[in-house]
What does this fold into?
Amino acid sequence: MPDLISIELLEEYQQAAVQWEPTLLELPFSAASDVLVLMTGCYGIRGKRNFQSVDASSQFAPFKKDRDSKSEVRIKTRTLETFEGNVIDPFCPNDYAMLVMGYKDKVLGEELKNASTAALVLMMLAKARGAGIAQAVLTGVRNPDGDTCLDLCDGLVTIADKEIKAGNISVADKNLYKLQEKFTNLNACDIAKDIVFKADPFLRRQNSVLLCSQAFADAYNESFLASHPAVVYNQQYNQPYVEGSNGKVTLVPLAELENSTKFILTDKANMLYGTDNESDASFVDVMRVGHYDLSFASNIWLGAQFNTIDPRRLMIVDLADTVEP
It folds into this structure.
């Protein structure tokens, strides 16, 4: 039979939560860095914040004393909304009584050398929460009654889906590319090039990322290898840049997009995620649950949005018609 939770053990975990609170709040986001590092973080957001993209039309022409120029300033607003989420994890501290001190972890960092067993347990639980955040900012679908991180907020793919249905992202507007055939190890290179060639010239001249599935990246590398066996610059198997992009488009495979019907071509500044994990509204807490368990609770705010869906900054790749039902 497991030992009862003593007052001393409860206090040890509670003190660890207080001492390491900043780390415990940041760890879920650090663990989601494979996705979040590709985006721009917007902090201190609880609820809605508007972001504007400003564009203007005005130009010089040959001199005329009576010239009446036509000019316009266009301001488009998109709203990043963060939603409050929480987690309460019951656990039995006796299960971790033999945890080796000095545990090293590349996400948690060297500071763990001075962490107690209680702190290590809380950190590992906090770190595990990052996987849901990475998935939510890409493919989450807001459901206030849901019970997973995917229910917390709309991710970028979901936002793109809604804009496509509203007609704001379309082939005619050049911010949508519809795949006409299923990608394979033979055609993926040609498909990637065609995506770049169909993109707006202003999008093509800036450094961008093509967020895709690992399956597409694998197919691209196989396709490139098969179609460029004797090219001098074909010196490595993994091709970091899409051919034909002048090194401007980096192919970035993400596990979180493996089953997605959408890929995203844009730049880091255009993909936003919002949090408020540095304010008093975000916290961690440990309390006793019954005779043998403790619970580790925390809350966050999370949201995602595109800064603009202008074709000069964004192209969505739609695979829906090539996916078998």
